[in-house]
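Hey, resending since the last one bounced:
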Amino acid sequence: MNRKTNAFWAALTILIVLAALVLCFMGQIRGILFARPSGNPQSAVTGFFDALKAGSYDTACSYLENYSSLGLDQMPASEEGQLMLSALKRSYDYSLSGNLVLLGTKASQKVLLRYLDLDALHEAAMARTDLDYSSALREILSNPDSCCTSDFYDVTINYTDGKWLMVLDNDLLTALQGGRG
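The C-alpha cells again:
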C-alpha cells in the first residue's frame, strides 16, 4: 500500500510538471494567456504622431520601442539644410486608416502619413534655372505642397513592459527623414 501511494504521488507530480511545461511553452508561442493587455494600442500611434507634429521629439520617442532619438533635433550646419529640416518638420500630417487589428500582445494599424519629400524638393530647386539653388529652395519652401507626398504604412504596436509601443520600421523612418534613409 505504501508503494501504491508513492506511485500515485510520483505520477501526479510528473503530470503537474508536464502541465506547467506545456503552459510555459504555450505562453512563449501565444503571449499572455491569462491576462489581457491594458490600454488602447491606437493611443501609442496617435500619441507618437501628435507629438511628432508638435515638435516634441522626446515625447514621440516615448511611444516607440527601442528608439531614444529620431535625429530630427539635430540642426544641419548649412542654411539650406536648416530650411529643409524646418519645412520637413512642419509638413508632417497623418490619419489612421481602417480598423486596428489586435492579436494578443501585438497590434497593427494602417496610417496615412504626409511628409515633405526632400528628393522632390531638391529636384524642383535644381529645375529652377532662373534662380540660384538657395533662392529656388526658399521660393519653393514658401509653398512646399507640390513637394509633399503621402503614403500608407502598416504600423506594428507591441505590448511591452505594461504599455503599448510602436515599432518603427525602416520604411516609416525613411519617410520621417523626408524620404532619405
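Residues 117 and 179 are 6 Å apart (CA to CA).

Sorry for the duplicate.
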